[in-house]
Write a structure and sequence with these properties.
This protein is an alpha/beta fold and 248 residues long. The protein has one domain: Rossmann fold, CATH 3.40.50.880. Helices cover 33% and strands 24% of the residues. It contains six helices and eleven strands. The strands form two sheets. It has a nine-stranded mixed beta sheet, sandwiched between helices. About 2% of the residues have low confidence.
């Protein structure tokens, strides 16, 4: 019996160790953040969407998050949205959700979901006041692509702390309308540094706020394919994602 115990004990301990590791792995998967990147367009479609999806997938991989990309509006149902910690609208355009899907999105945010909009997310659902409140403003128009300078208003925010006070880059510079109250402005566009600005000295270009029972973050950068290879913009996106999930 003593010999048998000596032989069995290591096997038993190994099985216990394997079971504990399996439980730890299951706990890690259950606690892993799930991100939905949604890029449906029914009006203008940006050529940078594919590059954006690839970059967001890389960012999620670095953060050890699970990411799903889709353009299927049928995902906007209560049982499906409930599994996502964050929904990212990547240069969506037009009216992309029907009424039932809109209502599911509302309930998602009321239940503590989070939202992030990139570039043309403000050119989306312009007939839906609730979405205006969520995304923060609507796209109006833009001049041709050119160099301009962005003023960094909050370099303590996780999406901006890597930036200097002024950030000069080439991009497409949106003008906006219907700004919503309560936005925390992170980046402001200096209209004196380019042609075609229509918002004046106060020209927000990235912002965040609490909405319903979750968080909302928007950045207007992301028009060009090249933008998703810019280290400064990549860190801006990564910080925005972390802020939305409360991982400052």
């Amino acid at each position: 019996m003593r010999i048998l115990t000596i032989l069995i004990l290591p096997v038993f301990l190994l099985l216990v160790l394997i079971q504990c590791q399996s439980r730890d792995k299951m706990d890690e998967v259950e606690n892993q953040k799930h991100i939905l990147v949604f890029s449906r367009t029914v009006e203008f479609r940006h050529a940078s969407i594919d590059a954006g999806v690839d970059r967001l997938r890389q960012i999620c991989g670095e953060l050890d998050f699970m990411m799903e990309h889709s353009e299927d509006a049928a995902l906007f149902a209560d049982s499906i949205l409930a599994k996502f910690d964050l929904i990212i609208f990547l240069s969506t355009s037009g009216n992309i959700l029907n009424e039932a899907q809109q209502n599911a999105f509302i309930r998602y945010m009321q239940n503590g979901g989070n939202f992030m909009g990139i570039h043309a997310a403000t050119d989306t659902e312009k007939d839906w006041p609730w979405y205006n409140g969520l995304v923060g403003a609507y796209f109006k128009n833009h001049p041709e692509i050119q160099e301009a300078t962005i003023q960094v208003l909050d370099n303590k925010h996780i999406s901006c702390r890597h930036l200097h006070d002024r950030w000069t880059r080439t991009g497409e510079w949106y003008n906006f309308y219907s700004f919503q109250p309560g936005l925390k402005i992170l980046l402001n566009l200096d209209e004196s540094t380019y042609e075609g600005g229509e918002n004046g000295p106060a020209h927000p270009f990235a912002w965040c706020h609490e909405y319903e029972n979750g968080r909302s973050f928007y950045t207007a950068i992301g028009h060009t394919i090249e933008s998703f290879s810019e280290p400064m913009f990549i860190k801006h996106l990564k910080g925005g994602i972390r802020w939305c999930l409360g991982l400052e």
